[in-house]
Specification:
5 helices; alpha+beta; outer membrane lipoprotein receptor (LolB), chain A; 20% helix
C-alpha cells in the first residue's frame, strides 16, 4: 500500500480536466434531490424471515471477501441522459478506479472515502473499460487530476454507497432483522435467482442503522442470492429516478494504481 493510503489527499482542482468535470457535475446535479419517501419496488413487502436475515447479514461480508470486483454504476439525470461509471473497487483499500461516460463527456475517475478525482479523455484512445482506466490512471501525472471532496450530488452519493457495501465480518442478523428490512420479491439476473430486499442503508463502520424514510421504508433495495452474494443495489434519489449499482465480476486480478492518490509534486 502506498504512503498515501488511508489519507485524504484530495487537493484543489487543476486546469487539465475542467471541461470534463463540468460536464460530469452538471449531469449529476441536474434535477436530482434527496431520497424519496417511498421505498424501492413500490408498495408491499413483508418482514424478513430468520433465514432471510441471515442471508442479508452475510451480504457485505461476502462482498468484502470477493473484492476486488468490477462494478457498473448508473446515475440518472433529467431527460434521458445517464452518468455511467464502470470501475474496479477494492473494498480492503476503500478505493475504486474506473471510467465515467455521459452523452457529452468521458474520462477516468477515482475515489476513496475522502473524495473524488477525475481526469479527461484527451488521449487518442479514450478509456472505455475499467482495465483501460487502470492503465491510464497509472500513467497520469498528479497535475492531470481534478480533485474535490464529496457533495450531496446523486453521483457522489452513489460512489460513497459503493464503498459502504462491504464489511470485514458478517452483520448481526438479529439486530438487522429488528431494524425493519423487508422481503420484496424474487428476481432473476443472468439466469440466477435473487431475493430483493429493502433495508437500512449500510454504514462504513460495519453496523446497520435503521435510516428509513418517513414512511418507514428504505429508499434502498438489495439483490442477494441464497448464499448471501450481493448482485445489485438500487437507491431511489427522487420519485421515479433510481441509482443502480451492479456487481459485474468478483475476484478480479487487476491492482488499483497508486497514481490518483499521490500528492502533487511528490512521487510514491
Amino acid at each position: 500500500m502506498s504512503r498515501c493510503a488511508g489519507k485524504r489527499v484530495w487537493f484543489a482542482a487543476g486546469t487539465a480536466t475542467v471541461a470534463a468535470v463540468g460536464a460530469l457535475t452538471a449531469v449529476a446535479l441536474t434535477g436530482v434531490g434527496a431520497p424519496g419517501a417511498g421505498g424501492p419496488g413500490g408498495e408491499g413487502g413483508r418482514p424478513v424471515s430468520g433465514a432471510e436475515a441471515q442471508r442479508m447479514a452475510l451480504a457485505r461480508f461476502r462482498t468484502y471477501q470477493q473484492s476486488p470486483a468490477e462494478v457498473t454504476i448508473r446515475v440518472p439525470s433529467t431527460g434521458t441522459e445517464t452518468v455511467t461509471v464502470r470501475a474496479i473497487v477494492d473494498h480492503r483499500l476503500h478505493r475504486a478506479v474506473g471510467t465515467f461516460e455521459t452523452a457529452t463527456a468521458r474520462g477516468v475517475i477515482a475515489w476513496d472515502q475522502g473524495g473524488i478525482a477525475v481526469t479527461d479523455a484527451s488521449a487518442k484512445a479514450p478509456s472505455r473499460t475499467p482495465q483501460q482506466a487502470l492503465r491510464r490512471a497509472a500513467a497520469l501525472k498528479p497535475d492531470r487530476w481534478t480533485r474535490r471532496p464529496y457533495t450531496p450530488a446523486p453521483l457522489d452519493r452513489a460512489l460513497r454507497l459503493l464503498l459502504s457495501l462491504s464489511a470485514n465480518r458478517p452483520d448481526n442478523a438479529q439486530l438487522l432483522a429488528q431494524s425493519g428490512p423487508l422481503w420484496l420479491r424474487e428476481d432473476r439476473i443472468g439466469g440466477r435467482e435473487y431475493g430483493v430486499f429493502s433495508g437500512p442503508r449500510p454504514r462504513p463502520n460495519g453496523t446497520q442503522s435503521p435510516t428509513t424514510s418517513a414512511s418507514g421504508r428504505s429508499p434502498l433495495a438489495y439483490w442477494i442470492d441464497g448464499e448471501g452474494e450481493l448482485r445489485r443495489v438500487t437507491a431511489e434519489v427522487t420519485p421515479g429516478r433510481t441509482v443502480t449499482i451492479d456487481v459485474v465480476r468478483r475476484h478480479v486480478y487487476w491492482k488499483l494504481p497508486d497514481a490518483p492518490w499521490r500528492l502533487k509534486g511528490r512521487g510514491r
